[in-house]
Amino acid sequence: MVSLRAEGLVRLGTSFRSSIAGAESNVAIGLSRLGHSVRWLGRVGADEPGELVLRTLRAEGVEVSTVERDDAAPTGLILFEQRLPDVTRVQYHRSGSAGSRLSAADVVLDGDVRLLHLTGITPALGDGPREAVERAVARARELGATVSFDVNHRARLWSAADAAPVLTPLARRADVVIGSGDELDLVGGVNALLTAGVREVVTKLGADGAAVSTPDGEQRAPGHRVPVADSVGAGDAFTAGYLSALLDGLGPAERLARGNRAGAFAVATAGDWEGLPTRAELELLALGEGAALR
Amino acid sequence: MVSLRAEGLVRLGTSFRSSIAGAESNVAIGLSRLGHSVRWLGRVGADEPGELVLRTLRAEGVEVSTVERDDAAPTGLILFEQRLPDVTRVQYHRSGSAGSRLSAADVVLDGDVRLLHLTGITPALGDGPREAVERAVARARELGATVSFDVNHRARLWSAADAAPVLTPLARRADVVIGSGDELDLVGGVNALLTAGVREVVTKLGADGAAVSTPDGEQRAPGHRVPVADSVGAGDAFTAGYLSALLDGLGPAERLARGNRAGAFAVATAGDWEGLPTRAELELLALGEGAALR
Amino acid sequence: MVSLRAEGLVRLGTSFRSSIAGAESNVAIGLSRLGHSVRWLGRVGADEPGELVLRTLRAEGVEVSTVERDDAAPTGLILFEQRLPDVTRVQYHRSGSAGSRLSAADVVLDGDVRLLHLTGITPALGDGPREAVERAVARARELGATVSFDVNHRARLWSAADAAPVLTPLARRADVVIGSGDELDLVGGVNALLTAGVREVVTKLGADGAAVSTPDGEQRAPGHRVPVADSVGAGDAFTAGYLSALLDGLGPAERLARGNRAGAFAVATAGDWEGLPTRAELELLALGEGAALR
Amino acid sequence: MVSLRAEGLVRLGTSFRSSIAGAESNVAIGLSRLGHSVRWLGRVGADEPGELVLRTLRAEGVEVSTVERDDAAPTGLILFEQRLPDVTRVQYHRSGSAGSRLSAADVVLDGDVRLLHLTGITPALGDGPREAVERAVARARELGATVSFDVNHRARLWSAADAAPVLTPLARRADVVIGSGDELDLVGGVNALLTAGVREVVTKLGADGAAVSTPDGEQRAPGHRVPVADSVGAGDAFTAGYLSALLDGLGPAERLARGNRAGAFAVATAGDWEGLPTRAELELLALGEGAALR
Amino acid sequence: MVSLRAEGLVRLGTSFRSSIAGAESNVAIGLSRLGHSVRWLGRVGADEPGELVLRTLRAEGVEVSTVERDDAAPTGLILFEQRLPDVTRVQYHRSGSAGSRLSAADVVLDGDVRLLHLTGITPALGDGPREAVERAVARARELGATVSFDVNHRARLWSAADAAPVLTPLARRADVVIGSGDELDLVGGVNALLTAGVREVVTKLGADGAAVSTPDGEQRAPGHRVPVADSVGAGDAFTAGYLSALLDGLGPAERLARGNRAGAFAVATAGDWEGLPTRAELELLALGEGAALR
Amino acid sequence: MVSLRAEGLVRLGTSFRSSIAGAESNVAIGLSRLGHSVRWLGRVGADEPGELVLRTLRAEGVEVSTVERDDAAPTGLILFEQRLPDVTRVQYHRSGSAGSRLSAADVVLDGDVRLLHLTGITPALGDGPREAVERAVARARELGATVSFDVNHRARLWSAADAAPVLTPLARRADVVIGSGDELDLVGGVNALLTAGVREVVTKLGADGAAVSTPDGEQRAPGHRVPVADSVGAGDAFTAGYLSALLDGLGPAERLARGNRAGAFAVATAGDWEGLPTRAELELLALGEGAALR
């Protein structure tokens, strides 16, 4: 999806900055910056906004060679307007977009795949996307990959009542489930998930950090206090940091710590994904000193 | 419709300037600036882009008090990218928009209406808009108003083959038909239109000016040569100038002259309608001297 | 008046953003956005800055059809420079401006007028404006309209000593008097005003909210704590919110609450009036969630 | 004077870039860039716009240590709007400005002065400025300096009929008179000026170059054809180039050539004076090749 | 290399837009956009400007996985200032940069390489780069790849006298030599090159198009006349177009035509490489019509 | 040195704003704005960036007539990127720059010099700059001027181990030594400096203010709490304020107070030196009210 972010108020005829948006692409970029090999499975229009999506992902080292460029549907748009410091208004131009035409055939998963990350946004887009998610989970299972799932309930796409019956079984089939407290409740709650066999359930607590629950109990880690430039994308940054540490074989405390650290970078920088840290940059958060421009 | 005009190339992640777009609103603004009382019949979403449309039209003195703000559909978007000096790429996000849900009920035409202006874009948007056009023509006839029709064939909305059977009968019912040579051919050609009872047929010749054909013969007037800042909207500017002179009771030569003059303003200024002249400014074209900032 | 707001420091050769300024137009826009029918009585030059004033007010739905466009005097300018986070420097280019030539003849007050709002700035501009104010009060009385008066003492236009003898009798003739503590003292103090027959006296307390005194006693309401983007216009926003609730027939507590709420919007947004809330937006202040872009 | 140049159309609420403006300061900067020692005699407000004037002139190496900073009057403003490619609208906020309060006491002329340059704008500003000009001419005569005079008739400040009786005697007392054909006619015409004892009369011919008439006859030099970025200031650039060559002791052909060359730089660059050439840069006009950034 | 392009005049304290620059990367991007698989051989600093180079090339689909990120030297900078419409000033901050430390070890050429493209800039940067070029030619010969060489004499890096003895033997070893008339003379002239065994010698004629000489004679093709936005990079665009057609197995006339067409895109767009055409866009040049935003 | 400050993240291809940078020029501008006569001793390239340095210093009233413009070396560059709110990345392009070629011959110190200010940056640039510093101290001693020395250890230029043996003897020869606690330790510590004959040692404590130690004891003054726009240059602002009060003959408490006040201005404004206060502006810090734009 291409995002258009209003610099002032929309009704006054402001300018818009463009970028790309999407919880999955945010996580993909976050993991790539942290040094992992990542492929994005998605669908864009065969148009210039679609080129922006692909150029950006390629720039960030995310593999997009299998992405379909749909000749028959435009790349979706999302408009953002910061109405008040803590009120961002969002408008989707996504119905009929290429992304909503994602299908099982778009799921190309081969070779040495260690992790499949899914979000609860994809199934909200229609039957095709829902089948693509099914296919991806099945394929991940065949390849022995870990499946992580971020609930990401988007109230503007579907109600909790509509989402719950779709997302709950999906969450139960995942190894790692991530969400806010409300979102985790929407898919049955932490305990039910663990009982259903989910390996770890991660609760995002916003500025208060995060917690992870496993059959062995809960661990909690506080967030970093940084000036808020733009909180959009902070959850995805956390997820990328958490999954990166997971892929590195680190324990729960280090996983939460890296997640919180990545989240702080996202919050302290304008843009959804632009401020995500590289592995070397993770250290800057504590540093606060004029390091080299490198 | 809200327009988003890329400042650079879309695939490179540029900024976009927003404004409003639409052949009918361009003509409405042009007539209002030239001193006429104008009402715009249309439909916008009950959203901030819709507010931009209404605020802009109100600012320009165009009456919008009867415009429906549709709670169930967003205001349409149009994206522009200047790929080469003479190649502008256009993408509509208009399907399912409020504008495409225009219906006969939106046509509020009362009181002292002297002119109804229609374009061939509206019927391209669906059955509702087509009925709205029908209703408007019928109502104009009841009120004794002149009906002008700008063919405005938009190839990205429908093919010539699809458009011809819809637009031709519409054109034949108008008093004034305006179009490029190709467009006039699409609705049967100048002669057939005159034969069918159209009072005057105006051919837009781009930089070469324009011509008007009546049963009495053809008159032609050359265009002004100005540096091209942005040719989008030039045709609508011409139409506004032409119709303004018509409303003032001027003859064909003066109608063409005012149309060409208004067109030159549009071409010489960035934006579709932003540079349209007020009545006082019409004189500036020849002047070229440092007039007062007023 | 047209405002030119320096983006950096003036002496360094910065850019300026333009908008319109004026306590009365701020209140007018605030009331219009809250759904009331408003007319602005003023005077602008027959120049492009004057067009900016009129276009903006029309865009905001404020009636300006009776505003005189003065051919013999320019629209006034006001320059702003943010020198320090809490020091804004102001320079008027207002002497000899159209606004300073306002006269009793410009006061067109007819029909169903429920409220006349005046400020202490107008009488500072000269004899003509002072007569216009006199005429407006007289006319409001004839029409049975409530008269509200915001003291708005501008030290850069006249000293407290010069202002007091002019503003005090004016305040005493009003039904509602609004001002900071200092300003209310300048016109005799809360008690004296009540004694003189003023129905309600409202004290603006900045970030601490506001209080209203009536013969029945005082009520106080705390302000909203929001990040400060630009405090210019906050007082006018409060006034608009207060008067809106008054027109809706609400009690003192609701009047103060809506005033404080509108003030918070103004403070949290760049621009004097740009961030003023619509009636629907009033609820956003507590919301803090990604609502639709509408 | 501080100039505010609209980036778009004023009525649409555009941004303004600030700089300094004034025929005399343009010539002063032009001469300084060409390597001459220059002092500017003027008056600014004791305000930030005044600081911008002084900072800019100092940056350009123009001596301003004797300039009065007027505590009682603001620095004048001039607004520019490019309405059409060849129509620039101008609005002065200059009445009552510090510059209009220039007086004979501001004229500090001492030491080794070789040239005094005057324009016909100063006497248009009032009695004080007129006396300042008188004083300057008298003082230049005492010091044995050449007096150059650019007619610079500004129709927005005074009519030709008002200007002629003031400017004609002034022109006759100068050694070098510069103007367009119309301006030279306003002060009596080339022949009358030569008869009155003027040493050389220079006619600016715009894009066609310039001509100089002396008792020995006329010489003419064609202008450079360059793309027009901004023609404001071209005449002052020409004057600076011409006077620079005069101070270097060059003949009429070289004087015209340097004037035309400097004029071409001004025309090809945005801004009134920003593009004026240094002595080394004069050669670039023919060069057209990627020289060093120096 | 990272380019910093002044938006105004450097001495006035302007802003700079950043991008990447380099004849080789321009050609690489051009070929990639035209659908070919391209690898860039170069060296950047392990700093953020270096990341900009790599991100941009990856975005454009150019393979950079073998590029060394030098921890001990910064990425080079190049500053541009447009002093006059046809005078661009250039300043390198390139001595000691990572790029100047390129060495034979950086040349990774394996697998199915059909073409190696070299420029005369690389050998100007020092002994290491010169050895890298030698190594690349040797390796290309082993792989049976065509070698193309663009003379690209940069007078700011070395004089013609210094360049000739280095570039001439290099040119003679190439299969395709490209340059302006002057550059081709610097390496011995068209005839000497053909005699030495060069298969085709291409003369870039700027706006006049280009010519190709082979042992069979000369063919010439005129350039496209387009408004000049920025002529930097036009030669590289031509080279990319020419080589693309060569790789497609097209004859000389089509090679020149595609080169000229690509050059026209570069000239008509701001930026060195930003406007290079995709294969589908090549057709737009003749089209001039509002195509889809895709 | 010319500074280029990234507006966003460098790797994303952002814009850069240019200005001048340098601890000595910051102090020079600070002293000039506070009303002192100041000369800057330095060296710039004979290029446009060098012109920016000279124009800026002249604009600020700093005397630069003796500054050498080096034809053989470019003006140095410094790039800044704000990576996180409190992490600014810095990259120098300074090796081989004109500034690093400063030599004793560039030190022109004559007439009535009351104070020589040096920093520990200059000796880090090479042997020539080190000799220039030696020469300056010797010359100051001959002229009876006070010598102040700001340790200014720049870890990116040299390590503490390398810097200590060079800076310690220099600090001991000064009358006033200024630095952070760490920096003062690097040159031997407060007590050792006082023992060595330094008259006063000033410790910069950042947001906590500053302290001055003399043989008579220590005084401390708290800093002002202002919103942080940009902390770069705050130390130099402090130094300028402190030295200004010293030149005015004020006591330690007033010296610290003016230093802290100047530092607060620097912190509260974007840019290294742009926000430095004039003498009149010093009072604004407490004021917080809309003063005149002057």
From TrEMBL, chains A, B, C, D, E, F:
One of its GO terms (molecular function) is ATP binding. It holds the Pfam family PfkB. Keywords: ATP-binding, Kinase, Nucleotide-binding, Transferase. Residues 9-278 form the Carbohydrate kinase PfkB domain. It comes from the Bacteria. Belongs to the carbohydrate kinase PfkB family. This is Sugar kinase. It comes from Prauserella flavalba.
